[in-house]
Amino acid sequence: MSKKLSTRQRLQIDRQKMTEQEPLIRNTNFKEVNLGLPEKIAILEAERCLQCKDPKCINGCPVGVNIPRFIKLLSEGKLPEAAHCLLDDNTLPSVTGRVCPQETQCEIECIRGHKGLPLAIGYLERYVGDWARGNTHRQILDVAPHTGKRVAVVGSGPCGLTAAGELAKHGHHVTVFEALHKPGGVLVYGIPEFRLPKQIVHEEVARLERAGVRIICNTVIGRTYMLPELRAHFDAVFIANGAGLPVFMNVPGENLKGVYSANEYLTRANLMAAFQFPRADTPILKGQRAATVGGGNVAMDAARTAKRLGAASSTIVYRRTRKEMPARAEEIHHAEEEDIQFEFLTAPVEILGNDQKWVTGLKCVRMQLGEPDASGRARPIVIPGSEFVVPCDIVIVAIGTRANPLLIDTCPDLKLDKWGSIIVDDHCMTNLPGVFAGGDIVRGAATVILAMGDGKRAARAIDEYLRHPSRRAAAPPSGKATP
Fold it and tell me: Which residues are 261's β-sheet partners?
């Protein structure tokens, strides 16, 4: 246990650095890039926290983690207490400690960042979360007595898992239905192993199962069961199936061989372990020259995956500048270190191919920035006569996703907005009584932590709904047998 430090002493401690694999070694393997903090360094970083009387960092966290509290316990060497505190607020701390954009959320609110570097909240969250995973026998899961109420959760991504965990803590029986053969949603199919090892997701899910959450995979709501069937046999339903339908560029040549959506490319590499082919069953094209279109985290993941699969060159094509890229600063930095090339102020206009219909290049135009558009970022404008070709044999399109219509098309009574996303009220409820929704299927493609925040808010609303029968409407008529 460390001795109590004065504010002046805390201010004299520099922000600690995370150890990493060397860039030109890690870009040839799928092992995790960031290697974590030793206990001594984690406690030293925790001692930088000033324990503000009005901690703004909490307001910056979408799931409302009591950041000063768990960090104080960590700085005192009270790891079991720190883990209990963190897990009480955050269902997936080892996940968010790795993929959450802390630099634009909790850390940007840290008062230490006003003069110097903010507290490394993400690093400390990861450290405590990992300690909890390795010491499951010392965890205390606060689960209320069973209420007898049953809740169905559609989707086991970060939003669904968070809601399931919170509802289980309230004492409700929770069953999660997952379309894929493994739980985790985007955490297992979208985020590469080098950023988020799948064993971590497995262990975080196992914690929820120990708390009583039941997860059923290979079950497609909209095919295996219909939404009205779930509503007939559960007291409430929470839809958290994400926005997994890829958006394409609608340029000539998108049907050529060698063109992937980022969803398919990353799903093959991550969930289906295509990087281990032929030891794994799923193949993937390993081009020598890969071009990825987009500027978000998904684009970084795809381009860095292509490099690890053996591409001699992997290039990101983005229509704005580095400053406007929505990807995390750390992911852009890591990509640059790993020899990923960037073509900024560049927009594709055609995918070129040969007589055998294989990709040979990406025809692009140069852009310049004009006035801000609806997103608040400067609008790219084409520079006439600026056409050029990025040579490539694989093109990965990572420009976004939208709501998958598989479930919503089978429930025409469900109200949607013009983008096909589900409309909810202030209590996360849809127009169908007892049917709630959250995450990307409501807000559109966003970050893991925002989806988790939605899941936590929805769980509170569902708990309130279940505990007050006067708000409950009659369930729709039954369909097939009880799932």
Answer: 397
pLDDT of residue 482: 43
**How far apart (Å, rounded) are the C-alpha atoms in residues 116 and 119?**
10
What values do phi and psi take at 191, rounded to 5?
-95, 125
Report the pLDDT value the prediction gives residue 479, as an integer from 0 to 100. Answer: 40
Which parts of the chain register pLDDT below 50? Answer: 1, 473-482
Residue with tokens 């009480």: 88
The label of the residue with tokens 């980022």 reads: 262
Residues 237 and 156 in one domain: yes
Taken in order 69, 75, 80, 86, the sign of the CA dihedral is: positive
pTM of the model: 0.93
CA atoms within 13 A on the CB side of 47: 21
Do 261 and 393 lie in one domain? The reply is yes
Reduced to 3 states (helix: H, G, I; strand: E, B; else coil), residue 236 is: strand
Per the structure block, which two tokens stand in for 38?
A: 């030793």
CA–CA separation, 200 and 194 (whole Å): 12
Q: What is residue 138's predicted lDDT score, i.e. its pLDDT? A: 64
The predicted pLDDT at position 457 comes to 97
**Quick one: tokens of 155?**
């989707």
Alpha helices in 183-342 (DSSP H): 186-189, 198-210, 227-233, 262-269, 297-308, 329-337
214-247 pLDDT per residue, tens? 999 999 999 999 999 999 999 999 999 999 899 9
First to last CA, the chain: 51
Selection from 454, 453, 463 nearest residue 65 by Cα = 453
Say if residue 356 is in the same domain as residue 292: yes
